[in-house]
Design brief:
- There is one protein chain.
- The longest helix has 25 residues.
- By secondary structure, the chain is mostly helical.
- It is rod-shaped.
- About 95% of the residues lie in helices and about 0% in strands.
């Protein structure tokens, strides 16, 4: 349970990071 929660949190941060990096790339 703990490891899957960690994976979900990592995926959320990764998605946010990719979103921010896209914004920085396009601007």
């Amino acid at each position: 349970p703990s490891s899957s929660h960690l994976i979900i949190r990592i995926l959320e941060y990764l998605k946010i990071y990719l979103f921010i990096s896209q914004i920085n790339f396009f601007t």
